[in-house]
Design brief:
It is globular and about 70 Å long. The protein has a 28-stranded parallel β-sheet that branches. An 8-stranded antiparallel β-sheet has the order 1-11-10-9-8-15-6-3, with helices on one face. By secondary structure, the chain is mainly beta. The chain starts with 18 loop residues before the first strand and ends with a strand. Strand 25 and strand 26 form a beta hairpin. It is built from 4 helices and 61 strands.
């Protein structure tokens, strides 16, 4: 790979500023108060939060299974005393219904309300909301406790989205009619604070609740008083998040401001320590800049003393390789340096005891996700870089009983610029929690954690005893070798930080599985697994420990090699707080499983055909806070049956290739694409070091792709920025099904930036976007939008290649499938409706080709 340009600092002003204004209408539900006693009664009847802990979502309602024009029934309570109705409608379409809340009279109330069990700690309320008018007031939503107190409120009012910060109604941003907005409200009942996100962008951080509370249990959407109009509600979710000691994304701070308390800033070395719109206006970071060869520039914060295993995670980027930067340094309350990570003269370094030790090289203008886990009980630390554990159980720089401060800085003669983003600090014990009781310790069933004894039978016996109890199988204090383990329902498989589940290197220890599905990926790729979850419900795999599949020990076809974790035909699955290493094929697979949460996974999957995370069909899936280094596709969505993937979010994660050898694609839809992809949000992710595309969306076997949204995607060192491919093969289909043709509609890329570079497989790649001619019919990609897409392309060709041929139906699709393309930036073919807005394209090396070349493209608006 060759040198590359710096990533540009986005200088666009923030579109919306939070400001105070008048009061929201007070929610009285005039004429509708009887719902409150009913909610309180429902709260007593529902299971407690503890009994429901294995559920991914406390509430998950998309309304799609309800009859059109019906009134939502239990667990919903409907009030309609204001004219109009509260009914299920085919909006936006028959596949994706919503509830229309309509009020026609200037009196009465129209409302949709539900009550859960009492929830405490960090509780998340999500919904998609769309209004037909800007005038008037709509609660979207209001949150209450069991006493009926309004705890938090969000409203669409007179063209603006507003939220109450304490007792003050605050304007968050404007809204437009007939546009869906995703509202995410995170309430912390311990601190009486909340965060608010609109379409994934954080708008309010640590804002005061409207009313202090110890718990919440009710969510309501409504119009009351003199308000009239129509709005729609869809995909309502309620779930819990783990508690952090400290978290800051900087996104709600004013651009160019100095970070306020609890941050402390020192700037005596010239330059400044200030908030910047890097990489985007809605995804800011703090720039720590030092221009003089004396003084200090630093960003620090102090928090309550933490003991045990304490996790420090952050994204950092340096503009230069020369010099030394503390990223981060950790201290105790006495000011002693406990642990330190540095970017120094092109290398990431860390102190092991008193010795500065090189970890790996780093590049300028590339983001790195660092996770430093400090154990004050053993005076040891672990260090992860982009999901790969680089150091394990190494001595702290100085022994300590607690830590309470983190700092990012340059001092002495060092000069330069670094960026800090996404700082998270948490105590692992409270963040993960202990193994749920009753606990089935595998050692009590004969398992030996010596790394050599085959413990398959012993661990399976513990699983069989635990299944159905709501308790946990515990692995602790050792390395436990095993073959295939089949988990049961209503249980947790808990690998604590002192333990590793080691996959056997003997292929015979992984019998072929036959789940009850004709999914094409079973016959091709998914046959064996280390942890196997077939047709189960309420299963959690957790604990803070590691799973090592010894993947390099296996050869042969993909289907002959074991997956690390394979969930199939299951429901309510959580896979979290683990280090996954060396899967022999795809590492983590969720297949035809619904209500799945995958978070805080660090994953190292080296070598080709070793994917990272693969989701194969399923609904209601959340992937967040993951870091993946893969030799193949890092985050891959596939469909092998007609049901496809419906409603999935991938956010706040890093997806990369395997170092200098690279991976294949960063975030990919395909190649198995039979069912469909609908309502997929990919947001706030970073992609790096892949030979092909940062983002690839494919349909070649019949998949209907609709409503796929990429937002705030930053990338570096990739062969191609994006690859969109609609082809008609129509020969591959699941057992018992028939071939069908696919489509691709409403794919959008918003706030995307990065740079491509030279890979031997993709030396001068533009973005390839093409439909297909099949049996004399042209299948076009439709309604494609690029908004604020800012890309540096490699360029460098001295001649113009000819136009690429139509795809061979059996040709394997990749962004380089036609070689170099006629343009250096974008090649569009067979597209109906494409809009470029606020986009810039720059070639790094001189190139004789045009920036954009189109063939059979209609409805082109704007320029890249």
């Amino acid at each position: 790979m060759k040198s590359h340009p710096p990533i540009k600092s986005v200088s666009a002003p923030s579109r919306v500023r939070v400001r105070s204004s008048g009061q929201n209408p007070v929610f009285t539900l005039r004429g509708a108060r009887p719902w409150l006693p009913l909610c309180a009664l429902l709260a007593l009847m529902l299971p407690t939060a503890g009994l429901r802990a294995a559920n991914t979502f406390v509430l998950n309602e998309k309304f799609d299974s309800l009859a059109t024009d019906s009134t939502p029934g239990s667990p919903w309570t409907v009030v309609s005393t204001g004219g109009g109705s509260v009914t299920v409608k085919e909006e936006p379409n028959a596949h994706d219904k919503s509830v229309r809340i309509q009020k026609l009279l200037t009196s009465g109330t129209s409302s949709l309300t539900t009550t859960t069990s009492n929830l405490s700690g960090r509780v998340v309320f999500e919904a998609r909301v769309m209004s037909r008018e800007t005038t008037g007031f709509r609660a979207t939503p209001y949150i209450y406790n069991s006493g009926g107190t309004t705890v938090a409120s969000v409203a669409f009012q007179d063209g603006n989205i507003r939220a109450n910060v304490g007792g003050t109604s605050t304007m968050v941003q404007s809204f437009a009619i007939n546009v869906w907005y995703h509202v995410r409200l995170v309430i912390d009942t311990d601190a009486d604070l909340f965060d608010l996100y609109i379409d994934g962008a954080q708008k309010l951080s640590k804002a005061a609740l409207r009313g202090a509370t110890t718990s919440v249990n009710t969510v309501s959407f409504f119009m009351d008083g003199t308000n009239t109009g129509t709005f729609y509600v869809d995909t309502v979710r309620v779930y819990s998040e783990q508690p952090t000691v400290f978290a800051d994304r900087f996104d709600t701070l004013t651009t160019d401001s100095t970070p306020p308390s609890p941050w402390a800033v020192v700037s005596t070395g010239g330059g400044s320590v200030s908030v910047k719109t890097v990489p985007f206006a809605n995804d800011k970071s703090v720039r720590v800049q030092k221009l003089n060869t004396s003084g200090t520039s630093s960003l620090s914060t102090t928090f309550a003393d933490q003991s045990g295993r304490v996790v420090f995670e952050t994204d950092v980027m340096a503009r230069e390789t020369a010099g030394s930067r503390g990223l981060p340094y950790i201290y105790n309350s006495g000011g002693t340096t406990v642990a330190s990570v540095l970017f120094e003269d092109g290398n990431i370094k860390a102190y092991v005891g008193g010795t500065k030790t090189t970890v790996q090289a780093f590049e300028a203008d590339v983001w790195y996700r660092l996770r430093l886990v400090i154990d004050t009980g053993t005076d040891k630390f672990d260090l992860y870089v982009d999901g790969v554990r680089k150091m394990n159980d190494q001595a702290l720089r100085n022994a300590t009983t607690s830590v309470n401060r983190v700092s990012f800085f340059m001092d002495n003669t060092n000069t330069g610029t670094l960026y800090v983003d996404g700082v998270r600090i948490f105590n692992e014990a409270s963040y993960i929690g202990s193994a749920p009781t009753p606990v089935y310790d595998v050692r009590n069933y004969g398992a030996v954690g010596n790394g050599s004894t085959n413990n398959t039978t012993a661990i399976q016996n513990a699983i069989n005893a635990c299944a159905g109890t709501g308790g946990s199988v515990l692995l602790t204090s050792g390395t436990y070798k095993s073959g295939t383990l089949t988990l049961g329902s209503n249980m947790t498989f808990f690998i604590d930080p002192t333990a590793t589940l080691l996959g056997s290197a003997n292929a015979a220890d992984y019998p072929t599985q036959t789940p009850g599905t004709g999914n094409t990926q079973v016959s091709k790729n998914c046959k064996r697994a280390l942890l196997y979850v077939p047709s189960r419900t309420q299963v959690r795999i957790d604990g803070g420990g590691a799973i090592d599949g010894q993947g390099d020990s296996f050869g042969g076809t993909e289907g002959d090699r074991p997956i690390l974790i394979w969930s199939v035909l299951s429901n309510n699955i959580a896979i979290q707080n683990l280090y996954l290493k060396k899967g022999a094929v795809w590492s983590l697979v969720s297949m035809e499983s619904d209500q799945v949460s995958i978070h805080d996974i660090n994953l190292q999957s080296n070598n080709i055909t070793h994917d990272g995370i693969d989701v194969v069909d399923g609904a209601d899936i959340l992937v967040q806070y993951c870091a993946v280094r893969s030799g193949d596709d890092a985050m891959c969505l596939k469909t092998g049956v007609r049901r496809g993937i419906d409603t999935m979010t991938v956010r706040d994660s890093v997806f990369g290739g395997d170092g200098t050898s690279g991976g294949s694609n960063g975030i990919k839809f395909g190649t198995a694409t039979y069912g469909g992809f609908y309502a997929i949000d990919i947001q706030d992710n970073y992609v790096k070091d892949v030979q092909y595309a940062a983002m690839a969306v494919e349909s070649r076997e019949g998949a209907d792709v609709d409503a796929v949204r990429f937002k705030r995607i930053d990338f570096a060192n990739v062969g191609s920025a994006c690859f969109l491919y609609l082809a008609q093969q129509a020969t591959t289909h699941p057992v018992g099904d028939v071939p069908k043709l696919g489509s691709m509609n409403d794919v959008s890329l918003t706030d995307v930036s990065g740079w491509t570079t030279f890979w031997s497989n993709s030396p001068h790649q533009a973005a390839l976007i093409t439909g297909h001619i099949y049996n004399g019919t042209t299948y076009k990609i439709t309604n494609l939008t690029f908004t604020n897409v800012d890309v540096f392309f490699e360029g460098g060709r001295t001649s113009v290649p000819g136009s690429p041929p139509e795809a061979n139906p059996g040709q394997y699709p990749e962004s380089n499938m036609f070689g170099d393309l006629p343009p250096w930036a974008y090649y569009l073919r067979h597209v109906n409706g494409v809009t470029f807005s606020g986009c810039t394209s720059t070639h790094v090396n001189s190139d004789v080709r045009s920036k954009l070349v189109t063939s059979d493209v209609t409805g082109l608006v704007g320029s890249p």
